[in-house]
Amino acid sequence: MGLYRAVARPLFFALPPEAAHRLAQTLLCLPLPWERIGGAPGDAALRTSLAGIELSNPVGLAAGFDKSCRHLDALGRLGFGYVIGGTITRDPRPGNAKPRIARYPRRASLTNAMGLPNPGAESAARNLARSPRSGPRLASIADQDPAAVIATHVLLEPLVDGIELNASCPNVSWGRDRNNEAHLALLLRELRARRTTPLFVKLPPFRSIVEREVVLALARIAQDGGADGLTCSNTRSVADRRLSTGGGGLSGRELSPDTVRIVAEVRRATAGTLPINACGGVFTAADALACLEAGASTVQVYTGFIYHGPRVVRDMVTGLSRAPSGRYLAPASPPGQDGTRPGGFRREFGATAGAGERRPGPTRGSGGRPAAGGPQALR
Ligand SMILES: Cc1cc2nc3c(=O)[nH]c(=O)nc-3n(C[C@H](O)[C@H](O)[C@H](O)COP(=O)(O)O)c2cc1C
Q1: Which residues are CB-neighbours of 209 under 8 A, at least 6 positions away?
Q2: Whose CA is closest to 196, among 154, 166, 134?
Q3: H or E stretch covering 134
Q4: Residue nearest ligand 1's atom 23 by CA
Q5: What's the 372 CA to ligand 1 centre distance in angstroms?
Q6: Is the dihedral angle over the CA atoms 11, 17, 19, 20 positive or is it negative?
Q7: pLDDT at 289
Q8: CA dihedral defined by 291, 296, 299, 304, rounded to 10 degrees?
Q9: Nearest C-alpha neighbor of 275 from the set 199, 326, 350, 336
C-alpha cells in the first residue's frame, strides 16, 4: 500500500469531504515537485491525439475537481494527459446547501450534490490567464441560458485547448426542467460558427431503456451538431439522506461496468465517428484498458484520484504501457503536420511521437482489435 493510502488518505478521510477538498487545494497551491509526486512515466507509445489535441497519455482529470481553474498547472504536472477545469457558468454560483458530498469508503464511491458551485466565467478566465499553460487543459462549461453558455465560451476558449459542454449535471434543476435535446442542438448551432478549439459534449449515464433512448439521441445530436467528441458519462442520480438535497450523483467504483457498456453503445450509435472520453469508475489500468477496448479514445478520472491519490496516474500510465494500449489509441500527429481535422485544432505540448515511434499494430480508426492481452492481463 502506498504512502497516500497508508497515511494521507486516512488524514483526508478524517475530515468532512469538502474540508478535505479544500486542504488538497491548499496543498496544490504550494510550489511542490508535482511531477515527482505523481511520477507518471513518459511513454511515446501512449501519446495520442484527441480531436487534434496532442496528449502525452490518454488519462485525463475529469471536470469538477478544480472548479475555479486555479490548480490546473499543478494537477497537469502530476502526469495527467489532460486536465479539465470547471464546470464554469457565466455568473458565480454558490451551489447547493451543505452537506453536499458523502463518501462510501467500502464501495470506493461518493455521492455529490454540489450544484455547480464556481466563481463564474470572468474569475475563471483570470485564473486561467495567471496559470502556466504547461499541458493540455480543457474548461467544462454549462448554463441555463444559451446566451450565457456562449458568453462563457467566448471568455474561456482562448485560454484552453478545448471545451467540454456539461449537458449532464444531475444536481441543477435547469438540467432536468428543460428540453435538453433542443437546448443542446441550439447551443451546438450557435457555437459551430464561432469556435476554434475542439468541443466535447458530456452526456449523462443510462441504465433503463428510456434513459438509453434519451442519451443516444443526445449523442446523435452532438454528432450532427459538429461536436468533436463525447464524454461518457457524468454521475448517476441516487437518493442519499446525508445530503441536504436528499440525493445526488453517484461516482466511483460502482460506475465501472456501466461506463464500459455505455462507451460501447454510444460508439455504436455514432458509428465510431467521434472520439469518446470514458468517465466513471476508472481507477486502474485494467479499468482504463477495458474502456479503450470498448471504443474510448481517452479515460477521465475523478473519484479514483480521491481514493488512490496522486499516484493514480502513474499506476494507470505504467499499466497501460505494459499492455497493448497503443493499439487502441489514435496516433499522435507527426511533427510539422496538422491535426486530425481540416481547420486544425492541433496544439503541441513538448515533442509528439514521430511516425516511426508509434507502436505498431492497427489503430481503432483502421478497425483492428488485438486478439489477446485485454484488461484481465492487468488484474
Ligand atoms: C464532488 C464532485 C464534483 C463534480 N463536479 C462536476 C462538475 O462540476 N462538472 C462535471 O462535468 N462533472 C462533475 N463531476 C462528475 C465527474 O467529472 C465524473 O463525471 C464522475 O464523478 C464520474 O467519474 P468518477 O467515477 O471517476 O468520479 C463531479 C464529481 C464529483 C465527485
Answers
A1: none
A2: 154
A3: none
A4: 280
A5: 32
A6: positive
A7: 95
A8: -20
A9: 199
Q: What is the DSSP string of 323-359?
A: TTGGGGSPBPPPTTS--SSTT---B--SPPPPGGGSP
Q: List the grid coordinates of 142.
A: 454549462
Does ligand 1 come within 6 angstroms of the Cβ of 267?
no
Q: Is the peptide bond before 270 cis (omega within 30 degrees of 0)?
A: no
Which backbone phi and psi does 118 adopt, to 5 degrees?
Answer: -165, 160
In this predicted model, what pLDDT tens digit does every residue of 279-329 receive, in sequence order? 999 999 999 999 999 999 999 999 999 999 999 999 999 999 998 877 788
26 has pLDDT over 90: yes
Place of cell 485485454: 374
Ligand 1 atom nearest to CA at 233? 19
The CA-atom distances, in angstroms, between 213 and each of 162, 166, 184, 229 are 27, 19, 15, 19
Please state the separation of Cα 59 from the chain's center in Å.
9
Q: Are 88 and 123 in contact (CB under 8 A)?
A: no
| Residue of the CA atom closest to atom 24 of ligand 1 | 280
Which residue's entry shows cell 457498456?
261
DSSP annotation string for 252-301 = EGGGHHHHHHHHHHHHHHTTT-S-EEEESS--SHHHHHHHHHHT-SEEEE
- Can you tell me the distance from the alpha carbon of 278 to that of 362, in angstroms, rounded to the nearest whole number? 21
Atom of ligand 1 nearest to the CA of 252: 25
pLDDT, tens digit (0-9, with 9 covering 90-100), for 325-348: 777 889 887 655 544 443 344 444
CA atoms within 13 A of residue 240's CA, in its CB half-sphere: 23
pLDDT of residue 357 exceeding 50? no
Comparing 39 with 272, which gets the higher pLDDT?
272
Confidence of residue 193 (pLDDT cuts 50, 70, 90): confident
Beta bridge partners of 354: none
Report the percent of the chain where pLDDT is more than 90: 75
C-alpha torsion sign, points 132, 298, 235, 168: positive
